[in-house]
Specification:
Number of strands: 15
Distance between the termini: 28 Å
Radius of gyration: 20 Å
Order of helices and strands: EEEHEEEEHHEHEHEHEHEHEHEHE
CATH class of the largest domain: Alpha Beta
CATH architecture of the largest domain: Alpha-Beta Complex
Helix content: 25-40%
């Protein structure tokens, strides 16, 4: 099979031929139609998340059809269209024509009416956004500041929060302000402005906000914003930009995002997209060869919406049932 892979220390990733993996007990093999790009891809390939085992294929998100099933698998059958976090271990990922996934993991059948590209955009960013919103525990009428709103997680979080009746203030460069308002943000603030971000937020909401989602992970950006929150206010950071001790010192709740994704969360998200309740912020599609570019860009902090690697012609098919 063709895959984007690192094959040895010191050699850049390249598109190469690897052996097609065979599913073990409890696993499925998926012929991939599309793979989602996430910041974690580049971090993992750089060795920041652990020692690399070669060949190392990046990617977590994916959508395609079940090609083979291992012993004991009854949840899925050959030919099923599926999406999810399609990997059995870091480095055995989705920037490839085939991948393995645990059948009992964060994998689900693609709902009718969704194509493979759309499905591949949902697992990491969409499910993380869903979990962050639950952990923030905001009710209708609450005010949420989303720092780093234009990325994949932020784009989904803005929509999900707005659907709940939460007032979203999104940080966004001016050229993305209208996009964020279209996704449901009540207000946007320009994070490139020379004026302090906290002051911009207070010009909109003088009493501050009820909760904050940090999707950037820069402590220098986040620290001045904590004063916008009341005692007991909630901060959740999937980007790991805040220490628990810092929050406790200021009387705040939350901390680093730790919720484990589930197939049930993925199924619910897919149902919402199929019903038109939220939309996928698709930025662009690339070929598998261009996956090298996607990998290099994934940790840049400048990705907006979702980038999808199209792997096979299956991506043109919309699921009917």
């Amino acid at each position: 099979m063709k895959a984007v892979a690192l094959t040895e220390t010191g050699v850049p990733a390249r598109v190469t031929e690897l052996s097609t993996p065979n599913p073990g007990a409890g696993e499925i093999r998926v012929r991939l139609a599309a793979a989602g790009v996430n910041p974690v891809d580049g971090k993992a390939a750089s060795g920041l998340l652990g020692e690399l085992q070669y060949p190392f294929v990046p990617g977590t998100d994916g959508a395609g059809t079940v090609d083979a099933v291992g012993d004991g698998v009854t949840k899925f059958a050959q030919g099923d269209p599926v999406f999810g976090r399609l990997t059995v271990a870091m480095g055995r990922g989705t920037y490839a024509e085939y991948t393995l996934a645990p059948a009992a993991g964060t994998v689900a059948r693609i709902p009718a009416g969704i194509d493979f590209v759309t499905a591949a955009a949902l697992p990491v960013a969409g499910v993380t956004a869903m979990g962050v919103l639950e952990d923030l525990n905001l009710s209708e009428g609450g005010v949420l500041l989303v720092v780093g709103a234009t990325g994949g997680v932020g784009s989904f979080l803005t929509q999900l929060a707005a659907r709940r009746g939460v007032e979203v203030i999104a940080t966004a460069a001016p050229e993305f302000a209208q996009r964020m308002r279209d996704l449901g943000a009540a207000h946007t603030v320009n994070h490139h402005s020379p004026e302090p971000l906290a002051d911009l937020v207070r010009s909109i909401r003088p009493r501050g906000v009820d909760a904050l989602a940090d999707l950037v992970g820069d402590p220098g950006v986040l620290a001045p914003l904590l004063g916008l929150l009341p005692r007991g206010g909630s901060v959740i950071s999937p980007a790991k930009g805040i220490e628990q001790a810092t929050l406790e010192k200021q009387g705040l709740t939350g901390g680093r995002y730790k919720r484990q994704p589930t197939a049930q969360m993925l199924e619910r998200l897919g149902e919402m997209v199929a019903a038109g309740e939220i939309r996928v912020p698709l930025e662009r599609t690339l070929s598998l060869t261009d996956g090298l570019t996607a990998l290099a860009e994934s940790t840049s902090g400048h990705l907006h919406g979702k980038t999808i690697i199209v792997i096979a012609d299956l991506h043109k098919i919309t699921i009917d049932s």
